[in-house]
């Protein structure tokens, strides 16, 4: 069995392999890997396993320094669940061995059920998804009463939801993201990351929906699509209470779910939520989302890795500081921190 780097495998072979994988996600897409490298300056250390001329395994990963300055390979940063793809269990040790030649620690954001080594850890988060197979009429019956009221409120307020196709929409959405993530007290992604996503995925596989109030953009929802997997990648909205009271996010989700049902997509992946974030979990459950805990696996087993804490006095103090600091300083600090956190 040979272990090869991404630049040693041609694009056609990668596409053929991914086309036959049941567990493939948007995070396995070459476009996502390219966007991560461009957006954050990561080194793409993805490894492929080849046997008798055929691809039999894929471990997508980036090498970076952690918040504590430790070198690590991560599959993948800013990706909530990334299955290691392997034809059988014998492929996994070879891919792991190759990763540990690049960095002293490997973090795979998946349980890797076939693995006989490594240490399983609780990520602290849950994944959420909406089953769309019954069609919009039945799916919408599973919306909570609060979600449905929000949709009606947005319609009464005259909120307009459209699919954006112009390049300027990315910058409009980014301004919303600055407001949203600063309001949440967390660092923001670089602007170039979102532009790289749009460029590499293209318009059809990178769908940016915007909600407008009398022509002014007040909320947005960004989907990524790859081989039948639909991911709710990003969401953002204005901070002022008057805009939020008009419930633009509710109408966005309703229209997106209706569109995906009409196109025949089986599920909508709503990403993850930390278990302590009761509000976000309730919002996702309001759309009929199912939930499951996310387990990761790390190598070597004795390494002391744990997911970054989301609660506690220090986290609270940093979050408060990010919310209150001027926007230019917030953007500068985000640029220093974000690549080590996601």
Automatic annotation (TrEMBL):
Q: Which organism is it from?
A: Thiorhodococcus drewsii AZ1
MF term (GO), any: aminoacyltransferase activity
Name the protein family: Belongs to the FemABX family.
**Could you tell me which residue ranges the BioF2-like acetyltransferase domain spans?**
144-273
Protein name from the UniProt record: BioF2-like acetyltransferase domain-containing protein
The answer to whether the entry has keyword Transcription is: no
InterPro entries per the record?
Acyl_CoA_acyltransferase (IPR016181), BioF2-like_GNAT_dom (IPR038740), FEMABX (IPR003447), PG_Glycine_Bridge_Synth (IPR050644)
Q: Give the GO biological process terms.
A: cell wall organization; peptidoglycan biosynthetic process; regulation of cell shape
Sorted alphabetically, which keywords does the UniProt record give? Answer: Acyltransferase, Cell shape, Cell wall biogenesis/degradation, Peptidoglycan synthesis, Transferase
Gene3D superfamilies from the xrefs?
3.40.630.30
């Amino acid at each position: 069995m040979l272990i090869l780097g991404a630049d040693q495998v041609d694009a056609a072979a990668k596409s053929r392999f991914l086309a036959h994988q049941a567990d493939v996600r948007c995070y396995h897409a070459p476009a996502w890997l390219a966007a991560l490298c461009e957006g954050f300056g990561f080194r793409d250390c993805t490894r492929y396993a080849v046997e008798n001329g055929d691809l039999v395994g894929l471990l997508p990963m980036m090498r970076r320094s952690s918040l504590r300055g430790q070198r690590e390979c991560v599959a993948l940063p800013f990706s909530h669940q990334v299955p290691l793809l392997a034809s059988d269990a014998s492929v996994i040790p070879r891919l792991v061995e190759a990763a540990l030649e690049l960095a002293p620690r490997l973090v795979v954001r998946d349980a890797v059920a076939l693995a006989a080594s490594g240490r399983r850890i609780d990520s602290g988060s849950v994944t959420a998804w909406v089953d769309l197979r019954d069609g919009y009429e039945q799916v919408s019956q599973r919306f909570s009463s609060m979600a449905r009221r929000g949709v009606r409120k947005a319609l009464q307020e005259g909120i307009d939801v459209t699919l954006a196709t112009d390049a300027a929409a990315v910058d409009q959405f980014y301004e919303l993201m600055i407001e949203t993530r600063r309001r949440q007290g967390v660092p923001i992604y670089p602007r170039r990351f979102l532009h790289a996503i749009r460029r590499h995925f293209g318009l059809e596989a990178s769908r940016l929906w915007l909600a407008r109030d009398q022509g002014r953009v007040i909320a947005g929802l960004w989907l990524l699509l790859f081989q039948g997997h639909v991911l709710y990648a990003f969401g953002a909205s204005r901070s002022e209470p008057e805009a939020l009271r008009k419930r633009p996010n509710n109408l966005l989700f309703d229209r997106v779910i209706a569109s995906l049902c009409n196109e025949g997509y089986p599920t909508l992946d709503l990403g993850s939520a930390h278990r302590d974030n009761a509000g976000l979990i309730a919002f996702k459950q309001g759309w009929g989302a199912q939930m499951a805990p996310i387990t990761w696996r790390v190598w070597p087993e004795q390494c002391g890795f744990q997911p970054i804490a989301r609660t506690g006095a220090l986290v609270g103090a940093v979050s408060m500081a990010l919310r209150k600091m001027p926007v230019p300083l917030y953007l500068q600090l985000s640029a220093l921190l974000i690549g080590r956190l996601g």
